Amino acid sequence: MLFTTYTDSEISLLLEVGQIKKFSQYDDDQFVQLSKKIPIFRGLSENDIASLMLNPKFLKFSDKDLIIKEGQLIHEITYILSGSVNIVMNDKIILNVSQGNLIGLISFVNGTKMPISIISKGDSVMFSFRANMQISSEAKSYTAYLFYKNISKYLGNKIKNMSAKMAYV
Fold it and tell me: Which pLDDT belongs to residue 153?
């Protein structure tokens, strides 16, 4: 399975307990627990996840809010917890991406500017964090290796699924 979905009760709990507001801070321990469902953290311990995340936060957007602007440099990994977003290029919607997906990941990894804009379609809730890649020990090097391996698998699966869909076109 490419992604994990959250149940309605989990989302309700997040909204209630986190008292989510745009760019609000969230309890790091609770964020680590929730992050275990994100495929790029597969196989990592709670300590590894906590050491990788800097400035974890929840983001709440309303319909048509601009989340990422074309040309923006990405410094955070963002996961769609609920709702969906439109991927926009040249003022045209080219794709809709929903709950359980990561956005801006290729630009984050490559350190390049976003070639597209991302706009909320309806209400959406996401969480994001900066990745701590300050590696100072062999154990941390393995954590970073596994993290990037998971990112590669995630992106590879996305390409594979997209290719399969295009075969039917």
Answer: 93
